[in-house]
Write a structure and sequence with these properties.
The chain is mostly helical and 214 residues long. The chain has two domains: 8-81, no CATH class; 89-209, no CATH class. Helix content is 64%, strand content 6%. It contains ten helices and two strands; from the N terminus they run αααααααββααα. A two-stranded antiparallel ribbon has the order 1-2. Strand 1 (134-139) and strand 2 form a beta hairpin. Helix 6 packs antiparallel against helix 8, helix 7 (123-129) crosses helix 10 (188-209) and helix 8 (154-170) packs across helix 9 (172-183).
């Protein structure tokens, strides 16, 4: 829509009926109603006091072209990751998705970052790799606040958070653990972090022992 009508001047340069007809074709609402009617957009454009800058219109269209290219490339990269992950991590994906709440996509992206669980000498190393190991800054008599080290792989950490949020809703085992931490006075973030580390410990054990979650 913005590509075809990058300014109010472009909208009011054509008849209202033509704009409405074109706009309805361009906007894919997938059955949902628009928050604002096409007639209202046209009326706003006709009363707009904004100045017309053709250069800005061209720059906006260039940015939209760039966004479309990046979106297409992201889709291609996603397909490549899925293809390679299915080829090299078929069994590992099966193990991770046996945990209620972990989907195939999350499992694939997590394994793409971890690569081989055997390169971690214990679950603490895996947690450290994800940057979920806690650190407390202290100075003299001052006891600093607890926080994450965030020294690890930020992508693996993000996926671990996403998976933890899913399993605490879908898996009774992790749901009970999350509630337990909240009842202990932990904040929401602290409880999710604790659930994430427990999930990583579980994933490490399952992958090392090559067994499904029971």
């Amino acid at each position: 829509m913005l590509y075809n009508f990058p300014s109010a001047a472009c909208i009011r340069s054509i008849p209202e009926k033509e704009f409405i007809k074109t706009g309805e074709k361009l906007i894919n609402t997938r059955g949902r109603k628009l928050n604002i009617a096409m007639t209202s957009i046209y009326q706003l454009a006709t009363t707009s006091i904004a100045c017309c800058y053709p250069v800005y219109e061209q720059l906006l269209k260039m940015k939209i072209d760039t966004l479309n290219i990046l979106t297409q490339q992201a889709q291609i990269i996603k397909q490549l990751i899925e293809k390679q992950a299915e080829k090299y991590f078929h069994r590992e994906i099966e193990i991770l998705t046996s945990i209620p709440g972990i989907g195939k996509e999350s499992a694939m992206y997590f394994l793409s970052e971890v690569v081989d669980i055997k390169r971690f000498n214990g679950w603490r190393k895996l947690i450290g790799f994800c940057g979920l190991d806690p650190v407390i800054k202290q100075s003299g008599n001052y006891n600093g606040k607890w926080k994450l080290s965030k020294r690890g792989n930020k992508h693996a950490r993000r996926i671990a958070f996403i998976m933890a949020g899913c399993v605490k809703r879908s898996c009774p085992y992790f749901r009970q653990y999350y509630i337990k931490k909240r009842n202990e006075g932990k904040s929401y973030t602290e409880a999710v972090v604790a659930t994430s580390t427990k999930l990583l410990r579980t994933i490490y054990t399952l992958l090392k022992e090559d067994r499904l979650f029971i």
